[in-house]
């Protein structure tokens, strides 16, 4: 690029420190320009590490950048992101894109009207091996069903165990968007949440219906003392049984790949992408349907 995108970062927690800030600072097409967080001392520490400015509030950050990346809870993200889109700023969003379906609809509408680029950090969709395998599954076709198991103890210990929004709404809102996105990409569009149950300890069990007649079963928990945890997405049908193979592409590398796509979108004026805000809205609708099916 002849000129780097000036990107502001909203958030200074573990994910921002581990992935967003170093990724934005190191990518040749972006420059980490400003940081704002609800904890000013955390924003100052992170900004200082990468030579960025500390914004006193979101308005000050928006005035200084071309794009905004988010690493904050969904209820914080959606409002600021909607305002950013209305001011013509491109968006790198976390999942879920909002805390409620109504907020997600407002955000997607603002992005559409403004004509800005947007991407959602659906991490594994930016891993080359996952992209390749999903392409192969779609090419082969004939899949009758699938299964997803994401079971871990992330809420019991580790960098995200003190996150209030995750304790309130995970795993459905946290890992749910990732797995709904993957099984949808593998089997075809999810047309119905046939059944959903939330058991003790936050274990979610769901049955999903897909366009074309396939069904899939999903088991999710972030409060089981499993070490290592389980992350498995599989499909089966007339061509046998296949499991998506994770070959170890790190979250940091996936974010770099996202930034490659993001910079290319901004340069070319493209606003459509398989993982744009409208994909985020689609996944939010599935989350909403699952909660309703489980009784709220």
From TrEMBL:
Entry annotated with the keyword Oxidoreductase: yes
InterPro entries to which the protein is assigned, alphabetical: Gfo/Idh/MocA-like_OxRdtase_N, Gfo/Idh/MocA_oxidrdct_glycsds, NAD(P)-bd_dom_sf
Domain of life: Bacteria
GO MF terms, alphabetically ordered: nucleotide binding; oxidoreductase activity
Assigned keywords, A-Z: Oxidoreductase
Protein name: Dehydrogenase
Residues covered by the Gfo/Idh/MocA-like oxidoreductase N-terminal domain: 5-117
Pfam family of the protein (one): GFO_IDH_MocA
Record-linked PANTHER family: BCDNA.GH03377
